[in-house]
Amino acid sequence: MGFDIEKIRGQFPILQRTVGDKRLIYLDNTATSQTPASVVGNITSLYEHTKANVHRGVHTLSQEATDLQEHTRRKVRDYINAESVEEVIFTRGTTEAINLVASSFGDRFRDGDEIILTVMEHHANIVPWQLLQRHKDIKLRVVDINDKGELDLEQYKGYFNDRTAFASFTHISNVLGTVNPVKDMIRFAREHGVPVLVDGAQASPHLRIDVKDLDCDFYVFSSHKMYGPTGVGVLYGKRGWLESMPPYQGGGEMIKHVSFEGTTFAELPFKFEAGTPDFIDIAAFSKALDFLEETGLDKIRRHEEELLVYTTERLLEIPGVKIYGEASEKSAVISFNVGEIHNYDIGLLLDKLGVAVRTGHHCAQPLMERLGIPGTVRASFAAYNTQEEADIFIAALKRVAAMF
Ligand code: PLP
User: Fold this and answer.
1) What is the spatial distance between Cα 225 and Cα 382, in angstroms, rounded to a whole number?
2) 171, 180 in Cβ contact below 8 A?
3) Which atom of ligand 1 is nearest to the CA of 225?
4) Does the CB atom of residue 202 touch ligand 1 within 6 A?
5) Whose CA is nearest to atom 6 of ligand 1?
6) Residue 375: strand, helix, or coil
7) Count of Cβ atoms closer than 10 Å to residue 394 Cβ
8) Is the CB of 174 within 6 Å of ligand 1?
9) Does the annotation count 363 as an active-site position?
10) pTM to 2 decimal places
């Protein structure tokens, strides 16, 4: 089966809307992707027919809701090829998953330990490690990039020493689009006995993730960037680590027995899922995974790559355009500036023409500082974007550039 773009677009009701009197051209997929009717319909149906708290009741609705949540957990396990459902923890998103690991795994770090990050990290993979520095004298070692926006792997390797306690890096940069050679990076860390977290927020909607093949210790991602509902994320962790880590939050659901003398904790994965989870959205996330599987990740990737190449070429025809991120392995994200025009002005004017792009620092201020700029305009593509939309975007950008 080919890639039937009209059939795909037909599944996303939001693409029919207008902005002002203009057709919506949605190119902010890196921030969040749109959601197919199958997911939206499922959420409505769950609220109308199956809403009951999970893992608590003996009654039918509670059993059904629990089954649906655990069905998604099995789907996620299969989607990322995890060994078991115990290794799949539901969180509110990538951010919470990284905070969980930094806080809980970070418990074992000692003064003088070093953590390796990269300059292209999203704030979600910087600040949680900095919070640890309030209590421990740990050092962050930051891997630089070259002019194309690729990681300096020699520097990465040079950072490993006997104080290296952890490495945490993104699979794909949300600004540069760089696809990092994470498998090689993990192998190197493994040779030095250093555990690794991979921030998969930008990779999970575009690449096939196989945590066994990657051999990562932790892998994290968000449903809302994968055509799924908001408020749901996943922390994959190797069972051995998860078992040895203390709970992140305390409350209902994560305990075995509570008394004022002491509390024992539930087995995995529930030990890390305190309180009522976002069970409706977790259940509906399975429909987003269905969408990805049915559409075909490989086909989506190829389609997005074509849009990336096409749009990049057309963009570079516009005088003054500078693109940030020219890695040989690149995802369909284009960050750019046009001459001295402020990224915010470009974003505002493009919006008047119906084109939704992101502007600013993209939660990557250290990267902006490294690039010596306050921000960029960012256009990013998903399965439902078309070449015609790319043309409309380019034409709109030409109009905007001509105004200055
Ligand atoms: N990491 C990367 C690379 C991202 O692009 C994002 C969001 O844009 C995040 C982490 C944070 O994801 P969330 O806000 O869903 O927790």
Assistant:
1) 10
2) yes
3) 15
4) yes
5) 201
6) coil
7) 19
8) yes
9) yes
10) 0.98
